[in-house]
């Protein structure tokens, strides 16, 4: 018999899938995952000691990769085969705090309080000793140091020194994994710390294409178990339909070109789920609402400036576009060239547009420079008359065409002239 999951339940499940904690298919990181898993297996299965740094921008899958490897190892060896300690440089701002949390995560804090320990190294050794003498004989340890670079700012880098020293002396089986978005993170290490580090680095770089980006979005919305549930299969059908919508794909393409960070999609999708919940009880997923939320994610500042121009200034920007087609896009131009273009347009549309004289146009041209839509090639060439100073455009030709189509109170002739460029 078919079950029927409620809309609220479906949305709750998708929300859970969108959280960073839930496992998901990772794209473009297969070699990184293999290398990391092999290293971790060597610690858990062969009781070796290792260290490695995972380096890459935020949202590039470092934490997700570590979690995926821990899940794979747990599946093979069981969760009792090893212990995990997670520290974060933004939370554990000094080594005492870190040590206390290591003890509490390993459930030996009571022993630490009773032990009379003089130094940091002695305390860390004591924690490991307690682990070994307890029921868990030589249990391999996975130490994850998120925001690794922050630990390098601690006095004398005591924690890092002691951890890497333990790894190097191979007294206890453990792997120390540092996660950081700083490429130069190794340079932050003191000499004695650096010399104990394995210098193994694994890089993460958003190494996937647009198709995979779409799959990430699709995967986080689709719910498993549709075979036995009419409501879930209806939801999945909506997802498939929305993800095939051309305007949605186009909006995601813009987003992808700006940043490949998959966290942006999650943000967008969470917004959509929220509005799906409040707008109607049916929780319909509509491509058009997705598109407007994606577009609201970023504001094109230059486009806003373009929309605030006067008609004359807009005409000059259009003229610049036409000049650039003649002399070559990205080539510099000067006021004389732009004015000639504007005059030619005005002459062929005498009755439909207001034509402005050269001095007025020059003032408008200078205003375009003041608001940085155009910039002089040589900022200090004051000996050259204003009309002849070479300029460069600071916006894309397409942004001007776009501004023309949105511009209010723009005559048909100007509109036609402004969008001709696109043809
Ligand atoms: N290559 C990838 N493929 C699919 N999802 C990814 C990928 N990289 C990151 N993500 C997703 O982006 C989110 C942020 O990733 P995370 O591992 O927390 O980044 P980091 O730790 O590098 O800052 C997670 O939900 C993760 O699943
Ligand atoms: Mg992370």
From TrEMBL:
Ranges for domain AAA+ ATPase: 48-207
InterPro entries: AAA+_ATPase (IPR003593), AAA_16 (IPR041664), ORC4 (IPR016527), ORC4_C (IPR032705), P-loop_NTPase (IPR027417)
Transmembrane segments: none
Main location: nucleus
Ribonucleoprotein is among the record's keywords: no
GO cellular component: nuclear origin of replication recognition complex
MF-aspect GO terms: DNA replication origin binding
Biological processes, Gene Ontology terms: DNA replication initiation
Cellular location(s): Nucleus
Keyword terms: DNA replication, DNA-binding, Nucleus
Cited function: Component of the origin recognition complex (ORC) that binds origins of replication.
Family recorded in the similarity comment: Belongs to the ORC4 family.
This protein's name: Origin recognition complex subunit 4
């Amino acid at each position: 018999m078919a079950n029927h999951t409620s809309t609220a339940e479906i949305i709750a499940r998708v929300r859970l899938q969108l959280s960073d904690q839930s496992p998901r298919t990772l794209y473009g990181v297969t070699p990184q995952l293999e290398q990391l898993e092999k290293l971790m297996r060597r610690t858990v299965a062969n009781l070796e000691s290792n260290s490695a740094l995972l380096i890459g921008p935020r949202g590039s899958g470092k934490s997700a990769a570590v979690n995926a490897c821990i899940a794979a190892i747990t599946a093979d060896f069981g969760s009792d085969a090893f212990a995990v300690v997670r520290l974060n440089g933004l939370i554990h701002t000094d080594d005492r705090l870190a040590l206390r949390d290591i003890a509490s995560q390993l459930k030996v804090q009571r022993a630490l309080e009773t032990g009379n320990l003089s130094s940091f190294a002695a305390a860390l050794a004591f924690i490991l000793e307690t682990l070994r003498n307890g029921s868990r004989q030589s249990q391999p340890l996975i130490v994850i140091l998120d925001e690794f670079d922050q630990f390098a700012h601690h006095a004398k880098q005591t924690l890092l020194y002691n951890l890497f020293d333990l790894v190097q002396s191979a007294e206890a089986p453990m792997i120390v994994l540092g996660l950081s978005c700083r490429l130069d993170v190794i340079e932050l290490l003191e000499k004695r710390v650096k010399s104990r580090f394995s210098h193994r680095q694994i890089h993460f770089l958003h190494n996937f294409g647009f198709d995979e980006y779409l799959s990430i979005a699709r995967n986080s919305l689709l719910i498993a178990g549709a075979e036995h549930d009419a409501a879930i299969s209806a939801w999945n059908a909506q997802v498939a339909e929305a993800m095939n919508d051309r305007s949605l794909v186009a909006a995601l393409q813009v987003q992808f070109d700006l940043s490949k960070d998959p966290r942006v999609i999650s943000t967008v999708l969470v917004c959509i789920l929220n509005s799906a919940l409040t707008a109607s009880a049916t929780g319909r997923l509509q491509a058009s609402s997705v598109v407007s939320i994606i577009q609201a994610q970023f504001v094109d500042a230059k486009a806003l400036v373009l929309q605030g121009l006067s008609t004359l200034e807009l005409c000059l920007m259009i003229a610049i576009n036409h000049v650039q087609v003649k002399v070559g896009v990205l080539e510099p131009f000067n006021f004389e060239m732009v004015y000639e273009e504007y005059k030619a347009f005005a002459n062929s549309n005498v009755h439909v547009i207001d034509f402005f004289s050269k001095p007025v146009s020059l003032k408008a041209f200078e205003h375009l420079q003041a608001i940085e839509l155009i910039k002089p090639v040589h900022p200090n060439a004051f000996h050259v008359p204003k009309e002849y100073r070479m300029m460069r455009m600071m916006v894309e030709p397409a942004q001007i065409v776009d501004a023309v189509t949105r511009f209010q109170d723009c005559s048909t002739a100007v509109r036609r002239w402004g969008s001709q460029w696109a043809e």
